[in-house]
Design brief:
EC number: 3.5.1.19
Strand content: 15-25%
Pathway: Cofactor biosynthesis; nicotinate biosynthesis; nicotinate from nicotinamide: step 1/1
Protein name: nicotinamidase
Family: Belongs to the isochorismatase family.
Order of helices and strands: EHEEEEHEHEHE
Structural class: alpha/beta
Distance between the termini: 22 Å
Enzyme class: hydrolase
Number of helices: 4
Largest sheet: 6 strands, parallel
C-alpha cells in the first residue's frame, strides 16, 4: 500500500511570532522531521496558504475586527488577521522544517473571494487544488496528516481525505490547535474520528 505524508501549512505566520501564531506550533516541527526521517513515504506533500493581499477572509479588507464572522459567498467566514500573503516572509515555510524529501507543494487560498482551509478544495467546494489528482496519479491509498492548525486546515484536509477514499491517519503529536474557543481542538478531534480519521498518539 502506497502512503503519503501531508504536511499542512507549517508557515511562518502560523508559527511563533507570526501574524496568526498557533500556540506551541514550533513544538511540532522536530516531530514532523523525525516522521520523515524514520518512515518511508512514497510522497511527501506540503500545503501552503498563499493569499492575495486583498483576500476577503482578512478582517482588514472588510472593515471588520478579527474574530467577527461574515457570510462570504454563502458560507460563514471567520475574520482573520492578514496572514500568508503570497510572496511574503509569513507565507514561507518555517526554516526548521526539513524539506529535503518533499515531492510536491499544493498552494491554496489563492482565490480572493473564497477561503480554503482544506488541502483538497476551497471552503465552497467550487475548486479543487489538484491534491486528490496528484495522490491518485501516484496510487496513494493511505495518507498521514500533520501540521497547522488542527481545528481548521488540518481538520478539513483530513476529513476531505476520508471523503476522497483515502485511509486517513492524523498524528496528534504533529499538530496544534488555534483554539479560538477553548474546546475547538478537542471538538476537532471528535469530529475527525466521527468522519473516519484514525488519530495516532
Amino acid at each position: 500500500m502506497k502512503k503519503a505524508l501531508i504536511i499542512v501549512d507549517v508557515q511562518n505566520d502560523f508559527c511563533e511570532g507570526g501574524a496568526l501564531a498557533v500556540p506551541q506550533a514550533n513544538e511540532i516541527i522536530p516531530y514532523i522531521n523525525s516522521l520523515m526521517e524514520e518512515n518511508e513515504y512514497d510522497q511527501i506533500v506540503l500545503t501552503q496558504d498563499w493569499h492575495p493581499a486583498n483576500h476577503k477572509s482578512f478582517a482588514s479588507n472588510n472593515n471588520r475586527k478579527v474574530g467577527e464572522s461574515i457570510i462570504l459567498n454563502g458560507v460563514p467566514q471567520f475574520m482573520w488577521p492578514d496572514h500568508c500573503v503570497e510572496g511574503s516572509f509569513g507565507a514561507e515555510f518555517h526554516k526548521d522544517l526539513n524539506r529535503d524529501k518533499v515531492t510536491h507543494i499544493i498552494q491554496k487560498g489563492k482565490n480572493t473571494e473564497i477561503d480554503a482551509y482544506s488541502g483538497f478544495q476551497d471552503n465552497n467546494h467550487f475548486m479543487k487544488t489538484g491534491l486528490d489528482d496528484f495522490l491518485k496519479y501516484h496510487d496513494i491509498q493511505l495518507v498521514e496528516i500533520v501540521g497547522l492548525a488542527m481545528d481548521y486546515c488540518v481538520k478539513f484536509t483530513a476529513t476531505d481525505a476520508v471523503a476522497n477514499g483515502y485511509i486517513t491517519c492524523l498524528h496528534f503529536n504533529g499538530t496544534r490547535a488555534v483554539n479560538v474557543k477553548p474546546d475547538n481542538g478537542k471538538d476537532a478531534v471528535y469530529e475527525m474520528i466521527q468522519k473516519g480519521v484514525t488519530v495516532l498518539g
